[in-house]
Amino acid sequence: MKFGPHPVAEAEGAVLAHSVALTSGRLRKGLVLTRGHLDDLAGEGLDDVIVARLEPGDVGEDAAARRVAEALVPDPSAARLRITKAFTGRVNLIAEGPGVVRLDTDRLNALNEIDPMLTLATVPDLQQMAEGGMVATVKIIAYAVPGAAVEQAEALLGDARGGAIGLAIPVMCNARLIVTEIPGGAGDKGVQAIENRLRALGMTLTEVLKVPHREEAIRKALAAPDATDLTLILTGSATSDPYDVAPEAVRRAGGEVSRFGMPVDPGNLLFIGDLAGRPVIGLPGCARSPALNGADWVLSRVVCGIGVSASDIAAMGVGGLLKEIPTRPQPRAGRKRAGSE
Questions:
Q1: How many CB atoms lie within 10 A of CB 55?
Q2: Are residue 203 and residue 294 in the same domain, yes or no?
Q3: Which distant-in-sequence residues (6+ apart) come within 8 Å of 41 by Cβ?
Q4: In terms of residue numbers, what domain contains 8?
């Protein structure tokens, strides 16, 4: 592609690089100039105009963006993504429902190495999405790119591994919540926030069981007949040890706890396990707030059928500092502990 000033008289078929204000109206950048446009420009006394002129083998911005997007998502229905119409060299990939984004980051990084004018930006891998959310955008920065670059992108993305971007959708329908109570505790605070989280994933909270904050009471609640896909536990007093009452109740009910504690803040005091082949998540106290916390990362993946191992949780630490909590007693920085010197 050739870019730069060009005699108006010879610019037919070129792409206008910058908008031009005329007496008769504005010619917008990106416009393919016709003889009528050139007459209007000459009528304004302009001798030169800055244009982009495609060379043999070049692919225009819209066509290039569309081809790359289609290579990224060869089967939009299976990927649960909608490919928008190309406009000004941009195509967006839109979530067709709630879910969790899955990215082949190696191929996507390789795609962005092909040509600086051919770009892809995405949300992070494993990010939870709502229906209509933008998962990715393909943008051709210049008015055209070499056809060889587009073909290289198509070859990279069209290998046997399939689409490089997709949305894992919820595979669970419902959940129950066990809430433990202590004198002067939080009570019902947070139940609505948890229900809202489930609703955002297309799930229903079918039952809320309130029991004393005792291991045996939790065990009995866990052992009660239940047909839900997922059990959540929210304790009135923070779970502070792998053998505290809630995780120990899961074990006594015949289940297992695969991980207690996560390197995400807020969200440290989460545990995850299994009971009768169905997942159990012990929620941290911060789950009472609608603000993002580590429980959201675990819950969305579990609901969408993505396994969450102890190693997966350990790997969440990089990027896991979500926000400081101004009201936290003994803030982590800027103030000494009481009685310290």
A1: 9
A2: yes
A3: 8, 11, 20, 22, 27, 49
A4: 2-53
pTM beyond 0.70, yes or no: yes
188 part of a folded domain: yes
Name residues whose C-beta falls within 8 Å of residue 212's C-beta, 6 or more positions apart in sequence. Answer: 180, 181
Give mean pLDDT, residues 12-20.
93
Quick one: tokens of 223?
Answer: 């052992």
Helix orientation angle between 147-157 and 61-72, rounded to the nearest 10 degrees? 10
> Is the same domain home to 150 and 190?
no
In a domain, 15, yes or no: yes
CB contact at 8 A, 264 and 217: no
One-letter amino acid of 190: G
Same domain assignment for residues 163 and 295:
no
Mean pLDDT of the region 137-158: 96
Between 4-8, 256-260, 271-275, the lowest mean confidence (pLDDT) is in 4-8
**Phi and psi at residue 26, in whole multiples of 5°?**
-95, 135
Distance CA 314, CA 102 (A): 19
In a domain, 32, yes or no: yes
In this prediction, residues 226-230 reach a mean pLDDT of 96
Q: Is residue 109 classed as helix, strand or coil in its secondary structure?
A: helix
Residue 75, class by beta-carbon neighbours within 10 Å (0-12 exposed, 13-18 middle, 19+ buried)? exposed
Taking 60 as the threshold, does the pLDDT of residue 329 lie above it? no
Same-domain check for residues 183 and 162: no
Tell the residue number behind the tokens 């289609």, with chain if given: 70
Q: The tokens 């207690």 sit on which residue?
A: 260
Q: Three-state secondary structure along 307-336?
A: CCCHHHHHHHHCCCECCCCCCCCCCCCCCC
- For CA atoms 261, 217, 286, 298, the dihedral sign is positive
For 136-156, the DSSP string reads EEEEE-SSEEEHHHHHHHHHH
